Amino acid sequence: MCCAVEIQELLARRNLEESTDRTFQVRIGIHLGDVLPRGNDIVGDGVNIAARVEPLADAGGIALTQQVFDQVYNKIPQTLTRIGKVELRNIQRPVEVYRVVLDSKTSATLTSKRRMPLTSNQNNREQQKSIAVLPFINMSSDRENEFLSDGISEDLLNALSEIEGLHVVARTSCFAFKGRSEDIRTIGDALGVETVLEGSVRKADNKLRITAQLINVADGFRLWSQSFDREMQDVFAIQDDITRAIMTALKLRLANRSDQPLSKLQTASTEAYELYLKGRFFWNQRGIGLKKALHYFELALIEDADYALALSGLADTYSLLSWYGYLPPNEVIPKAILAAKRALQLDPQLAEAHTSLGFCLLCQDCDWAGAEGEFIRAIQLNPRTVPARYWLGWLHSCCGNHDTAIGHCLQAVELEPFSPIARTFLGWMHYHAGQFDEAEQELLRAIALDERFVFGIWFLGRVYAAADKRDLAIAALEKAEEVSSGAAWTRCMLGHAWAIFGEQAKALKILADIQDANQYLYVRAIGVALPLLGLGDRDQALTWLDKACNDRDVWALMMKVDPIYADLRMDARFVALLRRMGLGQ
Predict the structure, then answer these.
(1) Distance of CA 315 to the CA centre of its chain
(2) 42 pairs with which residues across the strands?
(3) Residue 539, exposed/middle/buried by CB under 10 A (0-12, 13-18, 19+)?
(4) Is 244 inside a domain boundary?
(5) Up-side HSE of residue 101: CA atoms within 13 Å toward CB?
(6) What residues contact 6, with CB distance under 8 A and at least 6 apart?
(7) Which of 25, 62, 291, 533 is deepest in the core (most CB within 10 A)?
(8) 339 vs 273: CA distance, rounded Å
(9) Is residue 86 predicted with pLDDT exceeding 80?
(10) What does the pLDDT look like over 379-423, one tens digit per residue?
(11) How many domains does the chain have?
(12) Residues 378, 275 share a domain
């Protein structure tokens, strides 16, 4: 290992003294295994696996396997960063691979010597500096500390997003590459950026080690790298140091705030910060994770009652618990409104809280104008925000403004092309417009990004049902039921599909199940209406839709445009329900 480091350092120094046409670089792969002589050659696992690991090293760098890592970790001064498990040719099992972080100064100098003349397109990218922040790798012995590595990555992304002249790829697109072992250059090209920030986080008790490196996508060279060994309470300062180092490496300058933190410090409590990150970690998982998220956001607010981001997270969690039908709207939406308004009292510039409040205004009061104003304000405060854009599109769609709705959701997809939820919303807008082929294509793209993205799978089944594609509809809806572990909101639509395709017994079985209190503590009224609609029981369906409107169920806001209600639109009782929801015009 020490010989490999010395070879690379000697080569780097040699290259600095040579003209560009006389420089060269090598990659080194290291594995611990059998090495056997065969004639004038050597063979064995130690040779074969090392040869397959070598291409994973940076140019002028070193890659090594888990076996070597176990022997040298904490015994060498260089930092080791995890690439992940990699499939190697003719090797039966995936191999865990790491990179060695070498001295960045010689690499950066060599990079500047080898850089080719820029084309006009490259010049444009140079003027519009761009970066993607990949999820940092959790190197802690405790796997549960993944919330910390994810959270620090997201916070760095948010801090960089505030820098003028720097284009930062949105979170969901960056996190689409989590756990994947593609070459940095491949990832950078896919995301359309010139630089990529990657790193790792290790936490032991109160000790924190964060390693970060900035990679130039064009040639794979490191522009900067550094390790920070501090106490947990220094986490905010470390993030600020990393952000400033990136600005220096990319030749970006601050205006009138050189001695100020680059991002607003939302809390001084590291305990509250850790609890908040746990909340966001589980919030991003949806499903059962929402109740865990609620718990951690509440704990964060016990530590710091004025933590605006935690309040916004609390509002988002309450809203989604209502959205998916896990808890009644009249129980959770008032709490969501209180949390969102309190967050805005503490920080009126918090785009996330404006988005949260906008959603709540729709749920609680059918306040279409107020909600639209909050979504627009969120976009003004943070033009890169994606949730405010797709919710704004959804609002216009519910009112029948389909072209406007599709336009807003297209903007969301342009900002986050690797986001399954943004793609799903775009497909959803096409569905409301009766454009089933376009809806199908966008939803298939969403599922291709995450094959277990249950909301996209469920909505694809809904599109197939509307398009009268029986087998495809049932397959998608049964898959959604499986992935969601039988969540009521997926089973309601499956019951509707069985009914419209003539399988009444199966539809009645689901209808009985979702009304069984021993199976489900709560099922939204509009969900019960779906199988009844499929069975042709209009009176009972309208009774449950009336209850949904009384409950202020946000799904009732789609009744004007959702094709599933097409047969009810001439019924005076249904028209009266639309008026109650502010959808009479």
Answers:
(1) 19
(2) 37
(3) exposed
(4) yes
(5) 24
(6) none
(7) 62
(8) 17
(9) no
(10) 999 888 999 999 999 999 999 999 999 999 999 998 888 889 999
(11) 3
(12) yes
